[in-house]
């Protein structure tokens, strides 16, 4: 009799555990993004002030012993003042790229870029190291909302070259219709500024 109790008890506990694991967890946009982003190998730094953004940028550069970065966004160049780093406008494979992005895709943990950041360059032709500055107001639920956001924000002059970085480990590669033909795996640091 004791044997049957143990057998049925273990089956009941097993079915309870399965039910718990099946339950959907509803995370907020930012929590979902961070969870998915980190699971893909991204490095994430949350910032609550511009001073903190500058300080974290300085630490990223020191940690990796990077003395130069590529940056073509004049607003981002302001973040590098008082940091011992040389800036250049033209891309080089060995020099990290400091840029912004269009949107942060929460359900995939991906970053969405356009010609505003990449110009006419394919992701595969850009450096393998990225440092991205983004704000919490750029978070969207999915790729559809990201594309709609670009269309709405730039109505009349929609940017081209829309692609996303989907992997944050250099050796990883994943096909995606937005990055067909591109190697979109990058070693990526994200400086996320709380602006809401």
From TrEMBL:
SUPFAM superfamilies, alphabetized: NagB/RpiA/CoA transferase-like (SSF100950)
Pfam families, alphabetized: LUD_dom
Domain LUD: 79-192
Transmembrane segments annotated in the record for this chain: none
Protein name: LUD domain-containing protein
């Amino acid at each position: 009799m004791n044997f049957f109790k143990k057998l049925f008890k273990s089956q009941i506990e097993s079915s309870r555990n399965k039910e718990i694991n099946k339950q959907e967890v509803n995370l907020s946009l930012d929590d979902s993004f961070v969870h998915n982003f980190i699971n893909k190998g991204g490095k994430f730094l949350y910032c609550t002030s511009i001073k903190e953004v500058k300080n974290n940028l300085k630490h990223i550069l020191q940690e990796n012993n990077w003395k130069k970065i590529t940056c073509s966004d004049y607003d981002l160049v302001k973040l590098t003042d008082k940091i011992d780093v040389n800036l250049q406008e033209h891309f080089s494979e060995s020099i990290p790229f400091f840029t912004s992005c269009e949107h942060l895709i929460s359900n995939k943990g991906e970053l969405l870029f356009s010609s505003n950041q990449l110009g006419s360059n394919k992701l595969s032709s850009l450096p393998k190291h990225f440092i991205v500055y983004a704000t919490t107001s750029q978070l969207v639920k999915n790729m559809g909302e990201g594309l709609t956001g670009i269309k709405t924000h730039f109505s009349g002059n929609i940017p081209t070259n829309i692609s996303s970085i989907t992997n944050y480990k250099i050796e990883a590669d994943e096909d995606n219709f937005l990055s067909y033909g591109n190697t979109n795996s990058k070693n990526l640091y994200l400086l996320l500024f709380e602006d809401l």
